[in-house]
């Protein structure tokens, strides 16, 4: 039979605990045994008060057991089991055997069949069984129990109650099935929404990291080149370049930590660094050797729009360093209007096409599109290159 370790390796328990088809039939067997015990014991007790009834013999017991035995296969053969249980019960009653809980087997079969929607055959079989039970004893020459009016009325009421219980079970089953489908659909919708939100959050984090790292690494690269060029001839200027590299790297590290803060665990402390906004653009422009111009009356901006405007200015200044050359000058213009914000970055470089080597322009377009705005990037009216973003206030919530 093998050792317990071998059973564990095979992914199962000992052979005597194997759950095969007979274990799966356990509920059906238990139900059939229960119905058989109730019908046999209940009828055996009830016969003492029916001295005129036919004595229970082997045929009577066989009819009492026919219905419970048929219930063993009721899930596979619904209608035939209903027919067998009704036929056995009608035959038992017409044969004159004592009354008792003999209708339990057809009750279980009828309710089970109606619960799965087999209404027409079940109603026809129940009606046919009632007609045979009531009318067969009235035929001349037929030796069968004659049901008086009261007994026929009681039989009709019992059959009606059984059918009504079956219909109630059918309605409940349909309701539970619909409820399960609704819950499953809601669960799928929630899972899909969570996946979509996670994907959008990953894209947002990717854009944030691209903007942060691109800006500061470009500054570090430019200052490192200046430092190498001036190291021998002008050491003091080289020192200034190294100081700028130190500050840029520290700022990059701070902003990366701020961006990644959204991935922190819930029990960690909230990030203490301020969220990037237009209020930081002036310092950003100074670091990049650019100047800032404000047009219109400044106003408080929605957080999402404020953060997006800062990132657009940061990416545009990064492109100036990368593509316009070290001698180029840039101007950042922030224009406040009643219906939106205009952010414009102009440089006087040779007028290339920034962003061809990466996702700079594409990232800016994605940010602007998410807020319902527009982005224009191309040669400036006086030469150089211009990036202009228009962000409506109504595009945020």
Largest sheet: 5 strands, mixed
Helical segment tally?
Answer: 12
Give the ordered list of helices and strands.
HHHHHHHHHHEHEEHEE
Mean pLDDT: 77
The oligomeric state of the chains shown is single chain
Shape, principal axes of CA atoms: rod-shaped
Q: What proportion strand?
A: 5-15%
Instruction: Report how far apart the termini are.
Output: 69 Å
Q: How helix-rich are the residues, as a percent range? A: 55-70%
What does this protein structure show overall?
The protein has 397 residues and is α+β, with helices and mostly antiparallel strands. Among the domains are: 4-147, no CATH class; 275-397, Heat Shock Protein 90. The protein contains twelve helices and five strands. The protein has helices at 4-9, 21-24, 26-46, 58-70, 78-94, 104-115, 119-135, 149-230, 235-260, 281-287, 303-324, 360-370; strands at residues 291-295, 330-337, 340-347, 374-379, 385-392. Strands 1-2-3-5-4 form a five-stranded mixed beta sheet. Helix 3 (26-46) runs antiparallel to helix 4, helix 7 (119-135) runs antiparallel to helix 8 and helix 8 packs parallel to helix 11 (303-324). The model is unreliable at 1-23 (pLDDT under 50).
Short descriptors:
397 residues; Heat Shock Protein 90; five-stranded mixed beta sheet; 12 helices; 5 strands; disordered N terminus
């Amino acid at each position: 039979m093998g050792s317990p370790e071998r059973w564990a390796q095979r992914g199962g328990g000992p052979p005597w605990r194997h759950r095969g088809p007979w274990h799966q039939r356990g509920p059906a067997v238990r139900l059939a045994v229960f119905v058989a015990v109730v019908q046999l014991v209940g009828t055996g007790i009830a016969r003492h008060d029916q001295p005129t009834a036919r004595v229970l013999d082997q045929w009577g017991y066989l009819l009492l057991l026919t219905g419970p035995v048929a219930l063993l296969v009721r899930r596979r053969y619904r209608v035939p089991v209903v027919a067998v249980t009704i036929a056995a019960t009608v035959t038992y009653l017409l044969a004159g055997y004592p009354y008792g809980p003999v209708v339990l087997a057809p009750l279980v079969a009828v309710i089970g069949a109606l619960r799965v929607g087999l209404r027409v055959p079940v109603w026809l079989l129940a009606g046919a069984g009632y007609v045979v039970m009531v009318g067969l004893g009235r035929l001349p020459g037929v030796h069968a129990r004659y049901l008086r009016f009261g007994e026929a009325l009681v039989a009709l009421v019992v059959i009606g109650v059984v059918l009504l219980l079956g219909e109630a079970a059918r309605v409940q089953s349909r309701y539970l099935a619909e409820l399960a489908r609704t819950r499953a659909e809601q669960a799928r919708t929630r899972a899909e929404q969570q996946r979509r939100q996670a994907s959008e959050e990953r894209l947002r984090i990717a854009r944030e990291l691209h903007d942060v790292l691109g800006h500061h690494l470009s500054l570090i690269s430019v200052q490192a080149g200046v430092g190498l060029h001036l190291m021998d001839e002008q050491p003091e200027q080289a020192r200034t370049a190294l100081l700028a590299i130190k500050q840029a790297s520290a700022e990059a590290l701070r902003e990366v930590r701020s961006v990644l803060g959204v991935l922190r665990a819930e029990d960690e402390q909230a990030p203490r660094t301020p969220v990037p906004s237009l209020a930081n653009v002036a310092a950003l422009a100074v670091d990049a050797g650019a100047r800032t111009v404000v047009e219109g009356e400044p106003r408080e901006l929605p957080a999402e729009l404020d953060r997006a405007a800062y990132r657009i200015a940061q990416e545009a200044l990064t492109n100036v360093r990368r593509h316009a050359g070290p001698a180029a000058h840039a101007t950042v213009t922030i224009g406040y209007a009643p219906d939106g914000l205009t952010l414009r970055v102009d440089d006087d470089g040779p007028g290339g096409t920034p962003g061809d080597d990466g996702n700079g322009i594409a990232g800016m377009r994605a940010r602007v599109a998410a807020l319902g705005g527009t982005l224009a990037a191309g040669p400036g009216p006086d030469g150089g290159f211009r990036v202009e973003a228009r962000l409506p206030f109504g595009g945020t919530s």
